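Researcher: Next entry in the queue.
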Amino acid sequence: MRTSLVPFFFVGTFALFSACSGTKSAQQTMAEDRAYMYKEAYSAYIAAENKYLNLLFNIERMPEEEELWIMKRDQMRELEQLRDIMLQTRGELDESIQDWEKYLSELQKEVAKMNAPSKARFRNQDDLRTSPGELLPGEFAKDSIRKVQSRMRR
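Model: Structure for this entry, 154 residues:
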């Protein structure tokens, strides 16, 4: 199940990277480098795992070979080291993607600030309306009270 999610992760990461165009930020470059390192560590782990499985198959066929048992022990150590490296690179990748996302959100906030309309100076309440028939907050209550009062006077 884990190995089936890895291609989707890389496709999603690639889509995220390709969606951002223009000059690459330091955070984007770091995330891309970490993704490449993780991909290489994962490939090395899969290759070592395949060697290990092949070795187990050979041990099953020839259990009396002492050399195969020594190779198994060495291969198991290599698998453990590669797993640790892969987990470390995955952690670094996650951190760099989070840094990149923070950078992008800060950039969006800055762009929003720049594009935000300046505070308009409203002279009267009608200037606050965006369309002629719009009711301002609290106007409905005032309007309904006036209507009720006028009905009561009649």
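Model: The CA atoms of residues 109 and 115 lie 10 Å apart.
Researcher: Noted, moving on.
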